[in-house]
Amino acid sequence: MNIIEMLRQPWPWYVAGPLIGLTVPALLLLGNKSFGISSSLRHMCAACSPNIPFFKYDWKSEAWNLFFVGGILLGGIVSALWLVAPDLIRVNPSLAGELSSYGIGIGGLVPEDLFSWQSLFSLRGLIVMIGGGFLVGFGARYAGGCTSGHAIMGLSTLQWPSLVATCCFMAGGLLMSHFLLPAILSI
């Protein structure tokens, strides 16, 4: 198996997880930097809107974070264009059955009945994409960071607020997937 074929295959958790986890010591050893994605939006806003008091800080000292996020974006583009697995994405049959009970078909990487331009202009699409996006952004700001910053960086550096935030993220995800999402999907 050549390297391109290896990159096209889904990586098991026991390979991908430690590789993600190794970013923490790498960032700490290479420059005493903290891993997190949501803060990069604030840095971009500070670069574009320096007259707003909330954005008046030395964002240039955190410019490495913008390059890091740019690398994630570039990696996603490269993966989507040249490293797509040739096999159809396999979805657990029980999930496919549950989604079909709500009238949502499985096809591609995400269900197009939920995530498409046509779906965006439906009530269900507005709630899922716009409402969900707002709540994720608000929650990341309110919690002082996103799941990657708290669960990957914060927990590995033994920060109590990150443990609380990660527990809340998990509880919110469980409540959403078991109670709120079925109600939204039945609309």
Features:
2 domains; single chain; mainly alpha; 187 residues
Can you tell me the overall shape?
globular
Kindly report the average pLDDT value. 86
Number of strands: 0
Give a short account of the largest sheet. none
Number of helices: 10
**Which stretches of 5+ consecutive residues score pLDDT under 50?**
none
The H-and-E topology, N to C, reads as HHHHHHHHHH
Helix amount: 55-70%
Q: Strand-residue fraction?
A: under 5%
- Total number of domains: 2
What value does the Rg take, in angstroms?
Answer: 19 Å
Class from helix and strand fractions: mainly alpha
Please give the alpha-carbon distance between the first and last residues: 47 Å
What is the structure about, briefly put?
With 187 residues, the protein is mainly alpha-helical. It is built from 10 helices and no strands. Helix 4 (39-48) packs across helix 5 (63-82).
Layout of helices and strands:
Layout: H1 3-8, H2 13-21, H3 23-31, H4 39-48, H5 63-82, H6 93-101, H7 117-120, H8 123-142, H9 147-156, H10 160-185
Helix pairs in contact: 4-5, 9-10
